[in-house]
Amino acid sequence: MNDPGIPNPPEILYPDEVPPGASGRERASEAPKAEPEASSSPVAEWARKVVAELNQVFIGQEELVRGVLAALLAGGHVLIESVPGLGKTLLVRALGKVLGCAFNRIQFTPDLMPSDVTGSPVFDERIHDFRFRPGPVFTQLLLADEINRAPAKTHSALLEIMQEAHVTIDGVNHPIERPFLVMATQNPIESEGTYNLPEAQLDRFLFKLVAGYPSTEEETNILRLHTRGQPPDAELTAGLATVTGAAEVRAMQRRCAEVLVDEHVLGYIAALVRKTRRWPTFSLGASPRAGVAVLRGARSIAALEGRDFLLPDDVQEVALPALRHRVMLTPEAEVEGRGPDELLTELIRSVEVPLR
Predict the structure, then answer these.
(1) What is the pTM of this model?
(2) Which has the closest alpha carbon to 138: 108, 168, 180?
(3) Which of 157, 45, 74 is nearest to 112 (CA)?
(4) Strands 166-169 and 172-175
(5) What SS3 class is residue 248?
């Protein structure tokens, strides 16, 4: 597409940024030969620095890292489905160190109570009154490990905080510092002692990411890290550098929210979401919130690619992570052994892609 047909109003541009949203004809006629490529935009450069630093201790899983960064830039949260031992805790800890953000981890268990997550009032003998003791949710990067092992009451407490970004105790609001990213994990191979998240609660996650096993080369490099005499966890404090900060992360989030969206692309997103409600192998389609999730995620992907305008390719990249946990299969499709990714891929291919 030589001409995306997307307007590029000057009021949202930054003085240090080349307007990659200009059409192909404008760039060819007006831009000097020394013009930097679109991938040199601030968000793309920021992401390159972060990923380069992460790769020192976190090997492989490029799709997982890209999905987590896209969710962070979109201001959303992610649910990760994977077997144990794939480095989810290491990723969040390393990400917190590189971003200069606070990190906490909660191991969800059947006896975990909402107050164990949010915090609770405690009596302070010095002032002879109750004071609020913040819980582990008061952080910026939170790993909710095996979230499906806690009861529904604890799920609800965490998901409400994810939506509202504050905790209300005794009528007092306690805000959580931004950026705020929750990475929740669940193990797909165990069902004993677990409480499945209802569809309405799954809908609160921007993305559902699926992490697989590393390749042979990646697994060899992981083993190589453990031959240095100290585990990768020790290098989080010794080897990793903080290349950004919370204020810069919020600035990158604002840039992603300003990515331009053409009416044709908006129509394409709406067509994808609406077709899930009529697709014969889905008993429940995606809600309008799913369309908003696709839009927010696609804007982040466009910014990571160095563009300030949205393309249908960005929508297609986030369609599976944004929709796979928002649809329900019919019993016939489940009996046939078909999965949501396979069916969503067929659906995406059936929707006409806008030409401009």
Answers:
(1) 0.83
(2) 180
(3) 157
(4) antiparallel
(5) helix
